[in-house]
Amino acid sequence: MSSVCVHGLGYIGLPTAAMLANSGHDVTGYDVDADLLDRLDSGDVPVDEPGLGEFVTDALAGSLSVSDEVPPADYHLVCVPTPLDGDRADLAFVESAAEAVAEVLRANDTVILESTVPPGTTVETVAPILETSGLSVGEFSLAYSPETVLPGSVIAELRANDRAVGGIDERSVERAAALYDSFVEGTLRKTANPTLAEFVKLIQNTYRDVNIALANELAMIAADYDLDSREAIALANHHPRVNLHQPGPGVGGHCIPIDPLFLGQDSQKIDLIERARAINDGMAEYVTDLLESHLDSLADSSVAVLGVAYKGNVADARESPGLRLAEVLQTRTQVAGATGTSEAGVDVRLTDPHVADQRFALAPLDEALSGADAIVIATDHDEYTELDPVEIAAQLDGDVVIDAKGLLDAAAWEAAGLQVVRL
Ligand code: SAJ
Questions:
Q1: By C-alpha distance, which of 395, 175, 388, 376 is closest to 283?
Q2: Annotated active-site residue in 190, 255, 311, 405
Q3: If you take atom 27 of ligand 1, which residue's CA is the nearest one?
Q4: Catalytic residue at 201?
Q5: 178 within 8 A of 97, measured Cβ to Cβ
Q6: Widest Cα–Cα separation across the chain
Q7: H or E element: which one contains 43?
Q8: Is any atom of ligand 1 closer than 6 Å to the C-beta of 320?
């Protein structure tokens, strides 16, 4: 068993630290956020993920401790955020983590970067910073190994998923693989090329983004032929080599909309991928067009947007399609206010049973529905599949329902007197 320091106790770092501790390693979780460390010390796990609270609590009762100092360790795992800055990755957190590791790095230690980064980051950015320790690559080991877990199934996927392990040399591959071998039940896909592993992470999410863009374009084309795109996609997917994704009001979350930009930031060849991004971002405009064509006057209407989480059954509203839709609705119907400022025409009511963020002025469902002219289902929360169309029809003033996630039983809703438009 090894000593491990996990840098960054966020969505990936915290479950990974707990997983390593629960697999017998001696783990220190390091973070710069003093409040987070206090909360964890008192057993409060601030992450909305099924089963994670108990998993981390068990680890904290065992061999996981948290600290605001970086200790020397056999392994340093860097799991810090890489936000988007304009259209490029901001690597400031990765750089400061590497600087902190360099201060305590010893010969034979292993450093593994897990953060999603543009190709070349491990070799070109992290290695030179680590070498300021006075040690050279070869004296210490260095690898890139991306997480691929799906929010909502983090613990299960940390164990089950195959994992790319890209070491800077053969020894680094083996050292990094040895650590993951202690909890990964999937296959470790080893390569002595960290840039390849970085690229692989980005193309997995890019594949999904482009595939969803295709589904979105197909949905818009299908509507011109008066066809249901989801029915068409389901039928098409019976072909053994076809796997079309599902259309929707946009692609949210902190991974899929961002990673294609990292992939293309240093290449002039990015083209289809950029177009796919624009198609997915443009879905809010398309949903707004649908509303406009079904309402007498969008600007004088009230629209309930059901769902601001970026996807079903999570509480995360980053890059939220529902919020983007609200913005487009307001921008499109803006009218000049008395003092020269502009005021939104349409009354947008946002509601979500999972998201509790005060910044979004969320209303309870009943309040959002009361007297509304239209509703848009923007997130596939389980709660929305259980809505009673008769009760909803009684609460609304109008009858327009845009089911952008295709989760309602359209026949039942139409029987209740509502017009259902499916994407
Ligand atoms: N979506 C669609 N149509 C679909 C599938 C998804 O519109 O057919 C939308 C969702 O509603 C959501 C967005 O795409 O707004 C992204 O959701 P997601 O479930 O596809 O993915 P994420 O962002 O929750 O997690 C992804 C996963 N990547 C892949 O499946 C290739 C996950 O495995 C990664 O670990 C994660 O990104 C990450 O951290 O990179």
A1: 376
A2: 255
A3: 150
A4: yes
A5: no
A6: 74
A7: none
A8: no
Q: What does each of the 423 residues of the chain score in pLDDT, given as a tens digit?
A: 899 999 999 999 999 999 999 999 999 999 999 999 999 988 888 777 889 999 999 999 999 999 999 999 999 999 999 999 998 999 999 999 999 999 999 999 999 999 999 999 999 999 999 999 999 999 999 999 999 999 889 999 999 999 999 999 999 999 999 999 999 999 999 999 999 999 999 999 999 999 999 999 999 999 999 999 999 999 999 999 999 999 999 999 999 999 999 999 999 999 999 999 999 999 999 999 999 999 999 999 999 999 999 999 999 999 999 999 999 999 999 876 666 666 668 999 999 999 988 888 899 999 999 999 999 999 999 999 999 999 999 999 999 999 999 999 999 999 999 999 999
Q: Which two tokens stand for residue 355?
A: 């998201």
Cα–ligand 1 centroid distance for 256 (angstroms): 6
> At CA 201, angle to CA 56 and CA 357, rounded to 5?
50
Query: If you measure from the C-alpha of residue 149 to the centroid of ligand 1, how many angstroms do you get, rounded to a whole number?
Result: 10
Q: Which of the 8 DSSP states describes residue 150? A: P
Alpha-carbon separation of residue 387 from 12, 65, 211, 314, 372 (angstroms): 34, 44, 30, 18, 16
Residue in the block written with tokens 């090894």: 2
- CA–CA separation, 313 vs 307, rounded Å? 10
Q: Which of 107, 59, 55, 97 is nearest to 76 (CA)?
A: 97
Kindly report the number of other CB atoms within 10 A of residue 278's CB atom.
9
| Complete domains list, the chain, with CATH | 3-191 (3.40.50.720), 218-422 (3.40.50.720)
- In the chain, the amino acid numbered 408 is L
Write the residue with the smallest CA distance to atom 38 of ligand 1: 255
